[in-house]
Design the sequence.
């Protein structure tokens, strides 16, 4: 079974944990508790194949950015999460994007998705769909607007990122073994 590591990045309080917990457990946390680091594991079926995901929910606080660098090195796919109700959290995404490219190398094929949360809070929205689409097109990333509370597009985000990781990191070639050879 293929295994991929997803790193969930974004400012504090944008809903990274709510998004992740909704995907893993089908529920949302009852109380906001700032995350330092949570690792979740989930199996998902994409394209008829079972895939194991390690999902790292990271801290949003600036004091933990050094930890994020460690996570970025090992990550296969990234969710750049912001709140549709907080324009500053959207502006923060470019810094995170640049950090990923600095650490992973400026590769256009890194699986990255932009994820706007709190889609259900219509009256509090600060970031327009047009603005998000412009950045998504400029950066070449997929885009989803979600609501963990209403369970809107949560599964879609993880499935789409998993499809992108499958394309970027195909299964390793089968090892060739000679019957008469014994390696010790």
Sequence:
């Amino acid at each position: 079974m293929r295994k991929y590591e997803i790193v969930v990045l974004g400012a504090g309080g944008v809903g990274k944990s709510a998004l992740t917990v909704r995907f893993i457990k089908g529920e949302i946390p009852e109380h906001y508790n700032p995350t330092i680091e949570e690792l979740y594991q989930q199996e998902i079926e994409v394209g008829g194949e079972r895939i194991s995901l390690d999902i790292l929910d990271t801290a949003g606080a600036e004091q933990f950015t050094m930890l994020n660098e460690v996570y970025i090195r090992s990550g296969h796919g990234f969710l750049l999460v912001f709140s549709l109700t907080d324009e500053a959290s959207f502006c923060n995404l470019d810094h995170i994007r640049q950090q990923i490219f600095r650490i992973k190398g400026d590769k256009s094929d890194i699986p990255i998705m932009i994820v706007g949360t709190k889609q259900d809070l219509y009256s509090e929205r600060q970031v327009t769909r047009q603005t998000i689409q412009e950045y998504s097109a400029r950066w070449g990333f997929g885009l989803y607007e979600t609501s963990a509370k209403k369970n809107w597009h949560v599964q879609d985000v993880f499935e789409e990122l998993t499809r992108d990781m499958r394309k970027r990191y195909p299964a390793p070639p089968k090892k060739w073994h000679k019957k008469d050879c014994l390696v010790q």
